[in-house]
Amino acid sequence: MELEDGYVTNVGWVCGQQFGEKFAIERHRYAEQELRPKAITTIQGIVIKIRGISQDLQRLTDEAARLSQCKQNMRNLFPRLYKELERRAHSGNNRVTDQIELSQKEIDDLQAMNTGSGRGRSRYREELRGVLPGLRVLSTNIREEVISRFKSKADTIIGTNVVALHTDKLLEWQSWANNFDEMFAGAENLIADGKQFFMPECFDLMQYIAIDSAEKSEISKLTVAKLLKDGTNMDANKSASAEPVALSKKQRDAQKKLDAIIRRNRN
């Protein structure tokens, strides 16, 4: 905006309201003549890109539905274990340890080095069995991240008459388009984590975490095929009860970041 002394500066829409109707008119002109054409070009470019990677997007959607079904059935089959794994996912604790009973010689050696400690405290040692790969898949809503916020929106924009959109809506889509590559990479990483988590090696580690004896016994026999047997015909757009309803902190932060970008574009 050009001030009375000829100085040109940026003025946000909140502060700009103090300048009255003149600012509103100038803001509208700027949005229509400057921001709108750039937004249309950006969105049309992403539409071309989306059409070129349609098979990759469908693959991500299919994998997201598959992993979501695995989560749902795992929670149904192993409720106590799943709850503990979910707790670990939210806290970032992916280490799996086991309590090993010491031999008499090991106890005697420890006692010799720590003469002031009681013998009862020296009966066990903690041994690392491994690290759970891809554990974050349990704290993230896969359908929301991959299907709802990414694939579904991609399908929407390629079926939309971009030029006919209102300028405010164009700016929202422009922000989404500018983050497309980041969202695509995030979706691929999330799917990769899920594939690592639902693996026999990971199920083996879960035996050390399971407290319920029945679950501990059954987890050793678990396979991905078993987790999928009741959901092979599941519609990719249906909700899975295993998915958390509330967004995680990371998801909320990402949404706030996107909202901030949109607000800056509007200014």
Number of strands: 2
Quaternary structure: single chain
Order of helices and strands: HHHHEHEHHHHHHH
Please report the number of helical segments.
Answer: 12
> How many structural domains in the coordinates?
2
Between the first and last Cα atoms, what is the distance in angstroms?
12 Å
Q: What is the beta-strand fraction?
A: 5-15%
Instruction: Write down the overall mean pLDDT.
Output: 81
Question: Largest sheet, described in full?
Answer: 2 strands, antiparallel
Contiguous low-pLDDT stretches (5 residues minimum) are: 231-242
- Helix percentage: 55-70%
Q: What sort of overall outline do the alpha carbons produce when their principal axes are compared?
A: elongated
Strand order of the largest sheet: 1-2
Q: What structural class do you assign from the helix and strand content?
A: mainly alpha
Radius of gyration: 27 Å
3D architecture notes:
This protein is mainly alpha-helical. The protein folds into 2 domains: 19-94 and 134-266, no CATH class; 96-131, no CATH class. It is 63% helix and 6% strand. It has helices spanning 13-16, 21-52, 54-77, 79-91, 104-113, 142-158, 167-178, 180-197, 200-206, 213-219, 224-228, 249-266; strands at 95-101, 124-131. The longest helix has 32 residues, at 21-52. 22% of the residues are buried.
Keywords:
two-stranded antiparallel ribbon; 267 residues; 63% helix; 2 domains; mainly alpha; 12 helices; 6% strand
